[in-house]
Design brief:
5-stranded mixed beta sheet; 6-stranded mixed beta sheet; 42% helix; alpha+beta; globular
């Protein structure tokens, strides 16, 4: 099959493969299935413009900027180190509920004014809640950064009015009902509960219908007062701005935020093996999720874990893809790596015809057994490095892509990593590294949850 002209990502694939001693520096190989060689590659051209700065305000707010004058937009985000794992059973779901309430605004910025303002300046803005953090973010043109920052920094401490709380509670309950109708979300919630058991990471992000119904506005106010403290929030700004401008904005609008930082207890995880079946008669597929231990967010082997899951079960050109999806045995099958504070997991997902589910589980087991016995090949490793490197670089070309990366790194490890840092760690990994990883963290998974039409 003839090759088309290389796109930008193809050019990166060529450059990422470092020159070898046995190949002339200007020799270029094929793009499909063979190593490619060219001039030595150090870092994406746009990264040479990036400058990182970090300042901590007296109240404990960490202010991080990655200034990049080569782009035409700026992104900012408030990363709050609180999520479902930080909740008690009595207030399960409050972090996600509170995320909604932030956009109900304040007396100064009521909800209709907030929506109208962000629409008028053309901002891309939203928020998200997970097991470990709640993030509020926006991307704007540089001239709109000061007013957008002022609005977001204000609503991060919302009025939390009783009337707004009562209305939004119904929205949350409807959202829970919506996700209850989606089998793969049901499988995710139950596999997390099954695997982590009583550990805080087993709590559902949305909470339960019962916990949300019983939650009070006063409980939410108390949670906000103890978790939305300056020392528990990281401000990250990336793109076309300056650290001086961001620092002035932070000092003007965030310096009066209450100081403090709640402690998070990271107790050991004891995986709970087992098989749980949840009947769902109206589902056309059987949805299976499996969990197994993997390196935590602070473990340097997390880079090897990511590469391993790309080789084993990326959504294309992986072992699970060729074994199950391409032959038509399954609608979808993949494995991903999730790094968490004090823990980590491999998560395998299978969407399959109910009658083929048992056979497909055996096929997954076969793929994992072969990887454990024989390891990965050099060609697989090279292809996975190219794929991950392309994702890192392409994501870094947008301020929003760098925003999420910087925020996640700081919350997990209190560290800044440049694109070049990530590429260097990726390039250094070997097949022996992945073999050593699998000896301690095999992909074989024993905590399984199934959702589908069969009742067995």
């Amino acid at each position: 099959m003839p090759l088309s002209l290389p796109e930008a990502s193809d050019v990166f694939l060529i450059r990422f493969n470092m020159a070898r001693a046995d190949v002339p520096p200007n020799a270029v190989g094929g793009l499909l299935g063979k190593p490619c060689f060219s001039q030595r590659y150090d870092r994406p051209p746009h990264e040479t413009c990036m400058q990182f700065h970090q300042t901590t305000l007296p109240n404990g707010l960490a202010v991080l900027t990655e200034v990049n004058p080569s782009v035409q937009s700026v992104a900012f985000g408030f990363f709050v180190r609180t999520g479902s794992r930080d909740e008690t059973v009595e207030v399960s779901g409050v972090s996600h509920f509170l995320e909604h309430m932030v956009f109900k605004g304040t007396e100064k910025n009521p909800p209709e004014a907030v929506n109208r303002f962000f629409d008028e300046v053309g901002a891309q803005y939203n928020a998200m809640t997970g097991e470990e953090s709640t993030t509020y973010y926006a991307a704007v043109l540089p001239e709109h950064l000061p007013p957008a920052f002022e609005v977001f920094s204000d609503i991060l401490f919302p009025s939390l009015r009783d009337a707004d709380f009562d209305v939004e509670k119904q929205v949350i309950l409807e959202e829970i009902g919506m996700y209850d109708d989606l089998p793969h979300f049901v499988a995710y919630d139950h596999v997390m509960r099954s695997y982590f058991g009583p550990h805080p990471l087993g709590k559902p992000i949305l909470g339960t219908r019962g916990s949300v119904e019983l939650l009070t506005a006063e409980q939410m106010r108390a949670y906000h007062q103890t978790h939305y403290l300056a020392g528990n929030i990281t401000l990250v700004v990336t793109g076309r701005t300056s650290h001086e401008e961001v620092l002035q904005l932070a000092e003007k609008f965030c310096a009066r935020w209450p100081a403090g930082c709640p402690e998070r207890v990271t107790q050991p995880v004891v995986p709970q093996p087992g098989l749980t079946w949840i009947p769902k008669a109206n589902s056309q597929l059987t949805h299976l999720m499996q969990l197994a231990p993997a390196p935590s967010a602070s473990d340097p082997r997390r880079h090897a874990a990511e590469l391993l899951t790309v080789i084993a079960g990326d959504d294309g050109n992986s072992r699970l893809y060729w074994e199950l999806v391409d032959p038509g045995h399954a609608e979808s099958c993949d494995v991903s790596y999730n790094e968490l504070d004090g823990a980590g997991t491999y998560m395998t997902y299978l969407g399959s015809d109910p009658d083929l589910a048992e056979e497909n589980l055996a096929r997954i087991g076969k793929v994992y057994a072969e990887l454990a016995a024989n390891g990965v090949t050099e060609e697989e490793l090279e292809q996975a490095k190219n794929k991950v490197a392309s994702r890192i670089v392409i994501r870094s070309e947008r301020p929003m892509g760098r925003l999420t990366t910087l925020g996640a790194n700081w919350l997990a490890r209190q560290e800044y990593r440049s694109v070049a840092d990530d590429l260097a760690d990726l390039k250094a990994l070997t097949t022996a590294d992945l073999a050593n990883l699998m000896r301690e963290f095999p992909l074989h998974q024993t905590t399984i949850v199934g959702v589908g039409p069969r009742d067995e």
